[in-house]
Amino acid sequence: xxxxxxxxxxxxxxxxxxxxxxxxxxxxxxxxxxxxxxxxxxxxxxxxxxxxxxxxxxxxxxxxxxxxxxxxxxxxxxxxxxxxxxxxxxxxxxxxxxxxxxxxxxxxxxxxxxxxxxxxxxxxxxxxxxxxxxxxxxxxxxxxxxxxxxxxxxxxxxxxxxxxxxxxxxxxxxxxxxxxxxxxxxxxxxxxxxxxxxxxxxxxx
Length: 205
Fold this sequence. Notes:
single chain; mainly alpha; Tetracycline Repressor, domain 2; 2 domains; 10 helices
């Protein structure tokens, strides 16, 4: 019988190791969507991923390392859920709310822990930066029509109006439906865009 080369066995092990790592991250993310970060244990994650705690620690160094790896996967998922044609306000808001319906509660829980758990802060800072980048890309066309100071103010306003806390106020605190939430956020964003563009036209007169 022909012996398989060492490179083949190494490749198989690498694939298995990668699959195990992904399974652990997925198990952690699943827990994070439903529970507080500080209440999740490595024992739970290991059991969900069908591995030992030692495997989790060896691969990620602990829960903080696991969070750092998991947030990269979560960021890619968020980007995919939010993808929409720039300028299509209805689709942009619909996809944004769809993302918040999946991960919004988890993000709000993480924000509540920011001052108590140093490991959470870099993750949230990354999230804030990515949300601002998404907002700038989504509304690039009207923003380009403004000068630097107006553009900064308009972007700040639209970041706030599309923030997870705005979604939380409407969906969780006020109990509004997804449709009503989308309508309110769309109207606020459109009004803000119109206000800044009208101010710009007024300055030209």
